Automatic annotation (TrEMBL):
Its EC number is 2.1.1.-. It comes from Sedimentisphaera cyanobacteriorum. It comes from the Bacteria. Pfam families: Methyltransf_9. Keywords: Methyltransferase, Transferase, tRNA processing. This is tRNA (Mo5U34)-methyltransferase. Gene3D superfamilies: Vaccinia Virus protein VP39 (3.40.50.150). One of its GO terms (molecular function) is transferase activity, transferring alkyl or aryl (other than methyl) groups. The keyword Methyltransferase applies. SUPFAM superfamilies: S-adenosyl-L-methionine-dependent methyltransferases (SSF53335). The gene is cmoB. GO terms for biological process: methylation; tRNA wobble uridine modification.
């Protein structure tokens, strides 16, 4: 492991010990082996620098933590010097896509107000109490902490973007959770049929997958009988069956392979073996939810839309509308 990662090994080991108590041993061994391999040879030139930023953050224990508020919070009395050190280190992990967080008074105002999405769906999904949760495309772990507040037994977050893993390690330096952990892996690093999780989340991933049906089958295959999938994705806002494969970019994104109407997505979920499929939310994305901030200084939603007609992307397509679906196995 990189030297700077050693300080994070305690929570990492405790998390895998927890997994070993709840999941099949062959699955835990496979995931641990793959995760260790990535951390040992990350293949990203900035990863050691990011870990060094985490390493340089002061070792302080929070007096209290709050995973149920919009801003996931660690609080306590600290010196101004320590606060500035924390802020400087966290800003070295730019850009912050998901949040908000409040770390000893340092407010991480991320690009996405992820609290808004969580508020839209949290009361429309099955209770997470006592559930083993897989969060595919977890980002830096924001939703995982919110899921713990909802009663989840543990949350296994998967995201192959190493920056998000580094952000999680920075946050978890203070949250010190052995029940929520972001591993630098994707769903392709999992077997397709573990049937090990009570709830499987996939939010903001489907349209980035070349083979949408394979992705849904992977989600369903990791769901235990009676479990629930929560799928959130960009859609085509149409009452008809429709699938749109952008030629070139969509909202300046290069890797959007297909958008589908709600009826098509629900049929895909049913074809993956799910029942009781329904759409629980449909919301246009606005600049109140996704925008440029001091913690994400690159282009954001307003730069992706037609300046003369905000109902269209810069390429002339329908502006982003997101929907959430549930289905049980």
């Amino acid at each position: 492991m990189p030297a700077a990662f050693s300080l994070n090994m305690n929570a990492y080991n405790r998390f895998f010990n927890r997994l070993a108590e709840s999941l099949p041993s062959d699955l835990v061994s496979r995931v641990r082996r793959k995760s260790d391999s990535v951390f040992q040879q990350p293949g990203h030139g900035d990863f050691d620098r990011w870990l060094e930023a985490v390493h340089n953050m002061p070792d302080i224990k929070p007096e209290s933590m709050d995973f149920s508020s919009d801003a996931v919070t660690a609080s306590g009395k600290i010196s101004q010097e320590d606060k500035e050190n924390i802020c400087s280190s966290l800003k070295q992990l730019h850009p912050w896509r998901k949040g908000p967080f409040d770390i000893f008074g340092v407010h991480i105002d991320a690009e996405w107000k992820s609290s808004l999405k969580w508020a839209r769906i949290k009361d429309k999904i099955s209770s997470l109490t006592g559930r083993k949760v897989l969060d595919v495309g977890s980002g830096n772990g924001y939703y995982g902490y919110r899921m713990l507040a909802g009663g989840a037994e543990f949350v296994l977050g998967l995201d192959p973007t190493l920056l998000f893993a580094a952000q999680f390690l920075a946050l978890n330096k203070y949250f010190d959770s052995s029940r929520n952990f972001v591993l630098p892996l994707g769903i392709d690093d999992f077997p397709m049929d573990s049937e090990a999780f009570n709830t499987v989340f996939s939010m903001g991933v489907l349209y980035h997958r070349r083979d949408a049906l394979k992705h849904l089958n992977s989600l369903a295959g990791n769901l235990c009988p009676g479990g629930e999938i929560v799928l959130e994705t960009l859609i085509i806002d149409s009452q008809e069956d429709a699938v749109f494969a952008p030629q070139g970019r969509y909202a300046k994104m290069r890797n959007v392979w297909n958008l589908a109407s709600p009826s098509v997505i629900m049929r895909w979920l049913e074809n993956a073996g799910l029942k009781n499929v329904s759409m629980i939310d449909k919301t246009p994305t606005t600049s109140q939810e996704q925008r440029k901030t001091d913690w994400m200084r690159f282009e954001s939603l307003n730069d992706f839309l037609n300046p003369q007609d905000k109902s269209k992307t810069i390429e002339g397509h329908q502006a982003p509308i997101r929907a959430a679906f549930i289905g049980s196995k």
